[in-house]
Sequence to fold (152 residues):
Amino acid sequence: MASLVTLTYSQPSRSLAPGEVLITEGSPGGTLYVLEDGRLSVERGGVVIATISEPGALIGEMSVLLGTHNTATVRAEKASGVRVVKDAIRYLERQPEVALRVATVLAARLDKTSKVLVDLQSEHKDKPEQHGLLSRLASSLFYQGSQESEPG
Fold:
């Protein structure tokens, strides 16, 4: 399957200087970014939660797909380049190959997250206070969609 950098070749590019903010937490969403090169930090609530440096990485996809404001601040750690997909929902509707690639990336993230949660639950099975917290986290990640679709 082609990379997102390749699949979004027709979209404009944006260069970021070190320290420049790409996305601000709480700002309106709707734009999808694809990392071409460089390194970005992701900060939520003032805490750095991730560093992105893999070409083809998605940025802004949560707000696009959920129709919400941006959930994190994304800042260039060094000179970086991104592809800019404005009105991303409409773009994804017209580009099924890109939409499938986005879904594949998100499924891989969820798979990695579930593996980490299983490992943490195994490590903390004898600590009820931590095990309970991890169980709640797992439930919120994996069962939210089915709870929303149940009548009630």
